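Dear colleagues,

As part of the handover before I leave the project, I'm documenting each prediction I ran so the next person doesn't have to rerun anything. This entry is a single chain, and its sequence is reproduced below.
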Amino acid sequence: MTRPALPLLRRLRTLLIGTVALAEACGGTDAPSIRMAPPATTGAAETSSPDSNTAGVPSERALRFASITAGLRFSCGLDGNGRAWCWGGNRLGQLGVGDSLDRYLPTPVKTSVRFAQLVAGETHVCGADREGQLHCWGDNHDLELGDALEDHSEIPIAVRGHPRAQSLALGAKVTCVTDRDGVVSCWGTDVHGERGDARRDSVPRAEGEPVRTDQRFASIVAGRLHVCGLTADGQAWCWGDGGLLGDGTITDRTTPVAVRSSVPFVSLTAGESVTCGLEATGAAWCWGIAFDGQLGQGEPPRPNTFVPSPVVGGIAFAQLAAGKHRVCGLDRDGGAWCWGSNYNGGLGDGTGASQPAPVRVRADRPFTQIAAGDAHTCALDRDGRAWCWGENADSQGGGALGDGTLRSRDRPTPVAAPEAPTGGS
């Protein structure tokens, strides 16, 4: 497929949609207007005092979120009304705020749509409304927005011609959805077979096609270059980048292959270099690359493992979230644990040392939900307040922690309140 060379049409379309969205954001919703917060000094992860379990106290004006998601140097959340808010790096419009300027505080996405679910990929975001209609924004270099006219979009665009979404999974350059029957369709890039259409096509596609399998999936997740699905009876199947698929090989797969597991899983998570599954007992299993300890195999260091391997420590997890080279999880009491790379404080344990086994995140409260971005992590407490830790900035953008600074943090810091409305709006 040849991408149409329509720069004028793209500009006119973006201008028209942006004008409508701006009017909706200003007059059609009650979202406050937000300015960029002044950046603070960047650098290594800031360490709090040894006796402190968190970096800061949440503002009474802080947003309460119902869900949270994290991508490459940015984060997004849904409030209780289904309104989307994003913050962090914005070079490709992944914040959906109508421009490409970074934001260091939560900023409302420019749309009147109220979302039921929201998922961040590497540099794009998609959300489904209550009817399952999909809206996406951010990078579209490989047509991951499902729209052949846009190079990227700084505001949400409705994705037409694709199934109503029951479950979403976004990788680096691919978007996948399940329909009501559990059929998965994917679009975007297919360099490693991540579309699952048996092609391994070097040409990106905006049109989604069903993944070539007889399996029906209850949920799906995506790492950077691979996708996995979970059937209703707990069987995991993966496709895409070899070594992360759990089939015992390092071969790329263009259609789903069964993960070689002797236990059924209740949930999956996928990162850039690791995939993990959670069984009903709370035991975690991971497979993939082991160089930073992200498989959680403990000491002594072990080689890469291409079939599920148990995470050590005996922790009963309720949730897992995989980032680039680390994994985090919540135990059944809401305690947060992480293992793997501790680059810029990504493990949240107050140190800079990578860990081959789960270590407790230095938090003074339980969490109800956790999301892992590339090198930062965010979690929601029981009041719906967001806390983030890890890398906050690099040369490509910053502000992923949402605390109004560009300082990386080695333990949870509260996401700051958005700026107060200005000009009487």
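The first helix runs from residue 7 to 28. The longest strand covers residues 152-158.

All the best with the project,
I.
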